[in-house]
Backbone:
């Protein structure tokens, strides 16, 4: 029975991961009483072994669910986090009443935030940038598969954006690499082994280097009254808010979504 395939798994988070993998093997309609074919059981055990060795479930099954979208995931590209759905909500709130809204997602990875905004607001012009070719390629693939209109560019921060967007952007979103250089050793092994280093840290002592650069450069792209939104862990939110205030942003706030594992720090130019 399917339930036996899960019996050896620990309770809690590991059990949920196992159920995800079994669903990946058997399909969404499996029941605990179902017999598991031998070939499927062997495949499931192989996936379990990969996860025991630290490989994240999204990389194993090749996709992650995000705001009703199935986004492709692969090793070498930062995995979309459920917590970032709140970032999309915050961005859409600030864009929905704007005429001809324009949004830019920096360090976009596989494109979850950019695609979430574009799906919610099909009339918006949405761009995403990322430093790595692999991330931009995967984001473009996700956009094509989902038939969502968003454009992705490879390059550092705002550098690859079309010049015509200067001072025309309504909202910039950023989920930066904010782990301090000395804190890398404290991250879980599966994160360090499988997620790209450039998506975890900018190698600055406090993890604020890229955030500081974005705060200084964003006003060159934001229209008056435009917003910069930055997703960080709760312990970083006060420091990030300080960075924005020192850079001259108004209405700086730290907001939290339902999961409460991250904060979205917001500031207006």
Residues:
């Amino acid at each position: 029975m399917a339930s036996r395939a899960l019996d050896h798994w620990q309770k809690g988070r590991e059990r949920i991961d196992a159920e995800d993998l079994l669903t990946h093997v058997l399909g969404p309609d499996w029941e605990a009483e179902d017999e598991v074919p031998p070939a499927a059981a062997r495949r499931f055990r192989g996936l379990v072994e990969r996860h025991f060795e630290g490989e994240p479930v999204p990389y194993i099954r090749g996709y992650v669910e995000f705001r009703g979208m199935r986004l492709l995931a692969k090793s070498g590209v930062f995995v979309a986090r459920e917590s970032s759905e709140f970032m999309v909500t915050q961005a859409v709130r600030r864009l929905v009443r704007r005429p001809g809204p324009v949004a830019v997602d920096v360090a976009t990875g596989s494109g979850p935030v950019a695609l979430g905004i574009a799906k919610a607001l099909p009339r918006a012009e949405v761009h995403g940038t990322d430093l790595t070719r692999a991330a931009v390629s995967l984001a473009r693939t996700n956009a094509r598969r989902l038939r969502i209109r968003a454009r992705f560019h490879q390059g550092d921060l705002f550098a690859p954006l079309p010049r015509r967007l200067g001072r025309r952007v309504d909202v910039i979103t950023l989920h930066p690499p904010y782990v301090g250089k000395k804190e890398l050793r404290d991250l879980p092994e599966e994160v360090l082994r499988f997620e790209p280093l450039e998506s975890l840290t900018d190698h600055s002592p406090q993890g604020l280097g890229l955030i500081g650069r974005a705060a200084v450069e964003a006003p060159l792209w934001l229209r008056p009254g435009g917003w910069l939104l930055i997703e960080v862990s709760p312990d970083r939110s006060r420091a990030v808010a300080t960075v924005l205030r020192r850079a001259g942003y108004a209405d700086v706030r730290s907001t939290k979504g339902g999961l409460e594992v991250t904060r979205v720090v917001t500031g207006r130019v």
User: Anything to note?
Assistant: Residues 5-12 have pLDDT under 50 and may be disordered. Strands lie at 63-66, 69-72, 102-106, 125-130, 151-154, 169-174, 222-232, 250-255, 263-268. The radius of gyration is 20 Å. The first helix runs from residue 2 to 7.
